[in-house]
Amino acid sequence: MKRYFIAGNWKMHKTIPEAIELASELKERLADCKEKLMIAPPFTALYSVAQVLKGSNILLGAQNMGPEESGAHTGEISVIMLKDIGVRVVILGHSERRHTYGESDALINAKVKLALKHDLEAILCVGETLEERERGVLENVIRRQLTEGLRGVDTSMLANVTIAYEPVWAIGTGKTATPEDADAVHAFCRQVIAELYSSDMAKNIVIQYGGSVKPENTATLMAKKNIDGALVGGASLKAESFVPIAKFL
Question: Which of 41, 80, 97, 138 could form a disulfide with 45 if both were Cys (CB 3.0 to 4.6 A apart)?
């Protein structure tokens, strides 16, 4: 039976007290959830939330990390620092990092390899803008982001990689790709993984959908053959919306 991976990306929200309160509520209300769960608070709240999540079934995630282990990198957070406070998963290549902060495929790839080197799980985000979809280059964009994002990642490390397909035009807009459209892109992601690695790897890799995931559309999305979970943004900021997503209620 498939086990889904439901992850919450809190983005630049929640003070430390607010993060503790939400993490505590999720820990209690999701204690019986059978899916794989992760929440990614802001950096300032990671340590406090790590204490809350100890002994729970919810993994601690980070929303980003620097591409080096240490050094003169003002404003960055290293993989070693993240591991030190209990982070298990890191989100890399999110569309906001790519499009707002100009992160390149090469930079994202360096981060992916560094995370995997230090035994963190990496969620590699891919997705097209509305303009790219309308120009008919969606598959070119996804192929490039996957190929370059996974460059140098060998087969033995791929088990620690999750792909998150997030159409940029659906993030925070209330718009959602239809379940059929999303499933088609997920299937294409598997095709690319099969070309890069093997058909078995393509079949087994976890591919999440991200982009205005809500309690109302979760079950329909998760019912699709190629969708293995969700990377949830705004709806992960309240227990009353994240809990039913995690449980497909």
Answer: 41
166 counts as catalytic: yes
Q: How far apart are CA 187 and CA 69, in angstroms?
A: 35
11 in Cβ contact with 100 (< 8 Å): no
pLDDT beyond 80 at 175: no
Q: 134 falls in which pLDDT band (50, 70, 90)?
A: confident
Domain limits for position 82 = 5-247
Out of 35, 96, 166, 186, the active site residue is: 166
Bridge partners of 125?
164
pLDDT at 160 over 90: yes
Is 133 or 92 the better-scoring residue by pLDDT? Answer: 92
Q: Into how many domains does the chain fold?
A: 1
Give how far Cα 76 sits from Cα of 12, 40, 67, 73, 93, Å: 16, 17, 9, 6, 15
Please tell me which residue in 35, 94, 132, 186 is annotated as part of the active site. Answer: 94
- CATH classification at residue 65: 3.20.20.70
Contact of 164 with 206, CB cutoff 8 Å: no
Q: Is 180 a catalytic residue?
A: no
